[in-house]
């Protein structure tokens, strides 16, 4: 089975002057919407040069389709990096990165095209305000205690400990990132989870997904609760002595995940 190569209306590198013109618009944007609109206008104005069409020819009835155009990957990445860096001032880098997938042209590899030099300025605010409720502070402390218990019980090199450790510290460190703004509010959400509200308006939870204690005997579908009871009862679940995947009373393995 062969896969047909995509056909583009325009597939070429941007010239050095075109790259400079596009990047020059970025520092002057005052909002994320203005940043994205100005950059994409400059980009497609350049790509339409010489085609007999211009940006004003497109409307709701005759829409410009980003997938009809392609630029080298290194140029795409340079523009995206400059946009993301600029958006740090408003804490909208993450959302902007998602939007770029829908409005930027396609890419292709061209080893002969050098990566554009992009001068970046740190646009992040000078101070990041973290507002953490007392319950959330207690939960963070309890999570660290749970990690210590996992290490002591299963071992410092065990998957149970290392998986939980890596996931918790990854998301905990993410609370200090300014990609979502410089005013972050954190509250407790359940026994081992946090609820996070960011300055950009993005809201998400850092949730602990505990590993169920299952019977390890082949063919048994039983889950064993902390009190030793079995779920679901019946269906052969009570016909043998269950072998739990981790002991009763042992700290529960699991990992933290982020969900919006």
What can you tell me about this protein's structure?
It is a single chain. With 260 residues, this protein is of the alpha/beta class. The protein folds into two domains: 10-108, no CATH class; 129-259, no CATH class. The chain has helices at 16-25, 32-47, 73-87, 93-103, 134-154, 159-174; strands at residues 10-11, 69-72, 106-108, 129-132, 183-188, 194-197, 203-210, 223-224, 230-231, 254-259. The protein has a five-stranded mixed beta sheet with strand order 4-5-6-7-10. A three-stranded parallel beta sheet has the order 1-2-3. Strand 5 and strand 6 (194-197) form a beta hairpin. Helix 3 (73-87) runs antiparallel to helix 4 (93-103) and helix 5 packs antiparallel against helix 6. It is elongated. The two termini are 39 Å apart.
Low-confidence stretches: none
Rg calc: 26 Å
Q: How much of the sequence is in beta strands?
A: 15-25%
> How many DSSP helices?
6
Order of helices and strands: EHHEHHEEHHEEEEEE
Oligomeric form? single chain
Q: Helical content, roughly?
A: 25-40%
The largest pleated sheet is described as: 5 strands, mixed
N- to C-terminal distance: 39 Å
What structural class should be given to the helix and strand makeup?
Answer: alpha/beta
The neighbouring-strand order within the major sheet is 4-5-6-7-10
- Overall number of structural domains: 2
User: Strand tally, please?
Assistant: 10
Overall geometry comes to elongated
Q: Taking all residues together, what is the mean pLDDT? A: 91
């Amino acid at each position: 089975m062969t896969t047909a190569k995509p056909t583009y209306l325009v597939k070429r590198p941007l010239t050095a002057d075109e790259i400079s013109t596009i990047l020059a618009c970025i520092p002057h944007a005052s909002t994320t919407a203005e940043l994205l609109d100005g950059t994409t206008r400059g980009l497609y104005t350049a790509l339409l040069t010489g085609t007999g069409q211009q940006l004003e020819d497109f409307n709701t009835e005759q829409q410009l389709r980003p997938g009809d155009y392609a630029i080298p990957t290194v140029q795409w990445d340079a523009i995206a990096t400059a946009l993301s860096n600029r958006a740090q001032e408003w804490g909208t880098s993450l959302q902007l990165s998602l939007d770029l997938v829908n409005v930027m042209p396609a890419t292709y590899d061209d080893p002969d095209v050098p990566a554009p030099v992009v001068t970046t300025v740190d646009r992040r605010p000078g101070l990041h305000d973290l507002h953490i409720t007392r319950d959330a502070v207690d939960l963070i402390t309890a999570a660290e205690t749970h990690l210590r218990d996992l290490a002591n019980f299963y071992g410092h090199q065990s998957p149970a400990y290392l998986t939980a450790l890596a996931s918790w510290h990854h998301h905990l460190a993410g609370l200090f990132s300014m990609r979502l703004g410089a005013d972050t509010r954190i509250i407790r959400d359940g026994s081992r989870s946090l609820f996070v509200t960011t300055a950009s308006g993005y809201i998400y939870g850092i949730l602990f997904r505990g590993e169920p204690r299952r019977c390890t005997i082949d063919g048994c579908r039983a889950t064993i609760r902390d009190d030793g009871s079995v779920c679901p009862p019946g269906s052969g679940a009570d016909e043998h002595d269950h072998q739990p995947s981790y002991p009763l009373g042992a700290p529960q393995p699991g990992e933290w995940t982020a969900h919006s």
